[in-house]
Amino acid sequence: MKRVPEDSDKKMADKHRPDEKPDSLIKYEILKHSLNNELSCASAFLIAKELNVSPDKVGMITNSINCRLVKCQMGLFGYRPDKKIVKPVKTANQNLKNTIIDNLVEGKLECKIAWDIASRFKVNKMTASGICEDMNIKINECQLGAF
């Protein structure tokens, strides 16, 4: 695993209290699954599932050890060079659109709710995100705490 200079990622660790000590098993799994000091969203969720911990706990520890979360499964962050890769997706499925609208909080859709909607309507996460993009709806409350 290649590490990047610590000072380039100070902001990630600064999100958390300095006295917080990362769980050593979770930290080990993050380092094991990371490449070039980056951990993909999918890998973070795999770690959470395998260790039976919440995704935000994995995200918090990832940040606290200055490892970068990348490749959001909704296409919203962690891609190069443009950071996000989600593109607007048009859909004729009015039930899906109405479900998205019905679940908005202050005009935004929580990441977990977007995942649930994608599953319920049998579309992939990136498609659900793209439909939100087309409807000018922002997704918030990243399950890993990235945004």
Question: Describe it for me?
Answer:
This protein has helices spanning 10-13, 24-33, 41-51, 55-64, 94-102, 111-120, 125-134; strands at 38-40, 68-70, 108-110, 138-140. By secondary structure, the protein is mainly alpha-helical. It has 2 domains: 6-70, no CATH class; 94-140. The strands form 2 sheets. Strands 1-2 form a two-stranded parallel sheet. Strands 3-4 form a two-stranded parallel sheet. Helix 3 (41-51) packs across helix 4 (55-64) and helix 6 (111-120) packs across helix 7 (125-134). The longest helix has 11 residues, at 41-51. 29% of the residues are buried. Residues 1-10 have low confidence and may be disordered.
- The fraction of residues assigned to DSSP E strands is 5-15%
Strand order across the largest sheet: 1-2
Low-confidence spans: pLDDT under 50, at least 5 residues?
Answer: 1-10
Main sheet attributes: strand count, strand direction, barrel closure: 2 strands, parallel
Helices and strands, in order, run as HHEHHEHEHHE
**Sheet/helix structural class:** mainly alpha
Instruction: Tell me the radius of gyration.
Output: 16 Å
What would the principal axes of the Cα set say about the shape? elongated
